[in-house]
Each structure stands twice: as structure tokens, then as C-alpha cells.
Amino acid sequence: MIISNFTIYRWKNAGMTNLNVYRLLKYLKKNPEQISLRTMAKIGQVKSIPDFIERFKSQDVQTLREQFKQFPSFSILDACYPVRLKNIYNPPVLLFYQGNLELLSKQKIAFVGSRNPSIDGIKSVQKIIKEMNNHFVVVSGLAKGIDAASHIANLKNGGLTIAVIGTGLDTFYPSENRLLQEYLSKKQLLLTEYGPGEKALKFHFPERNRIIAGLAKGVVVAQAKIRSGSLITCERAMEEGRDVFAIPGSIQESYSAGCHHLIQQGAKLITQGNDILEEYEF
């Protein structure tokens, strides 16, 4: 059974979750014979099989194909798919992109942190990135705050960066980062598992964070509260065997509490770029 990226897109559009599709693809890799939609849904563990079949059959395939073709994509079946990402729990089965796909083959470090950082937090990230001397592609989520500061700091130092976003590539969120997103789409690399037209929904961002952590050798966290998406990203990174680096802050500030918690849990405390480089024998 030949599976195209568009077929995967149709499955997801009809209501299969990413994990449903991943289960199905694993089965079809070992059993490539033709099977029915109902059997596919059973293998993928779709909750409502009749609803999935009805949605799949009622799709306007021509309109869906035109939508799909707006941006290039690659799937977990393609040779360019990063091995490190493939090995995480629930890896994204289909990714849309803009920019230079060759960045996926380079060594990567992720940066995550507060959307409302202090000036000291931003300066700390700028310092760490400058001192890494462009040994890594910097991966982050293009959110306001630490994410945007990380992308910009690496660009100013002549480095390369990948932004993983929680919307379709034709959506700009947050709106204040539109110019940055447009620049990265031409000069660097944008990735998303969400198709054209998909807006910023709350659950998209935890899902996006697993991709950020999954792409990188390690994750650097700056100014994260105890209850924050950044902390969850780092905890998932630890579970996946990634290195986690935490920039310490004031014990009197809540936005440093998450970093200090991670250090207590085994993350490496860093104050300079060389603290990261020495972990990888540069």
C-alpha cells in the first residue's frame, strides 16, 4: 500500500489524531497490503470509527489538495525526517515547512522560557547564545519573550535558527512577531504540524513543545515558573533522554522557580555558553 503525504493529511483532516496515524503507519510498514477504512480506523484506535469513515468519504478532495499544496511538507516516512525526532513518544507524522530544510541535519539546541521575561532574562539568553559561537542551530517556538529573543540573538550572531510554531504557516501568532516569522520563512526554517488555516489553539502549544525538545540534543530554559509550558517541555526532554540546561535567577522571583526546580531534578546549571559546549566536547 503506497502512502503519500496527502493521504496522511486526509486521515488527519477526517479526525485521526497524530497518535492514531502513527499507530497506523507502524502497522502498515510491517503489513503493506490494502486494508479497508474501517480496519485502518481500528488499527489507529480511532474513538468513533463511523464518524471517521463518514468524514473521510465526504471530503472535497480537490479543495483539500489545493489547501495541502500551499506549503511543502515531509512525513515520518521521508528520508529527511530527523532520526532524533522520530524516536520521541508520539512523533509528528506530517510537518509543513518554509525555508532551508538542510538545517534539520545540523546539531541543534532548544531555548524555552517565559513569555514575559525580565531584561536580565533576555540578556542572559543573549550572552549564552553569543558564547556558543554558532556551534548549534537554535530551536525555539517563535512565542514572544524568551523564544523571540533566542531567535533574534542567534541571527545577530550570524547563526542559524529553526522556529516550530503552533499554527498553520499562513497564520502569524503572536502578531507582533509577524516580521520575524516572514524573515525566518525565507532565510532560516519554519516548521509546524498544523495545516494551512489552522489557528492558535491552547492545546497546540504543548504539542508543539514536544517537537522543539525532540529536535534538539539539549534544552536551555530561562526564567520559567513552576507551572509553565517551559517547565513541562524540559521535563519531557528529560524523559526522552535529552540534556537540560537551566539558567539560574533570583530566589525571590517566581519566574526563576522553575529553573531552580529543574536544577534540583538534575538539570545542569549554566552561566556561560561554554557550559553547554563542554558537554559536547567542542
UniProtKB/TrEMBL annotation:
SUPFAM superfamilies per record: MCP/YpsA-like (SSF102405)
GO biological process, one term: DNA-mediated transformation
Span of domain Smf/DprA SLOG: 76-280
Domain DNA processing protein A sterile alpha motif: 3-64
Record Pfam families: DNA_processg_A, SAM_DprA
Entry similarity comment: Belongs to the DprA/Smf family.
Matches recorded under NCBIfam families: dprA
Name of protein: DNA-protecting protein DprA
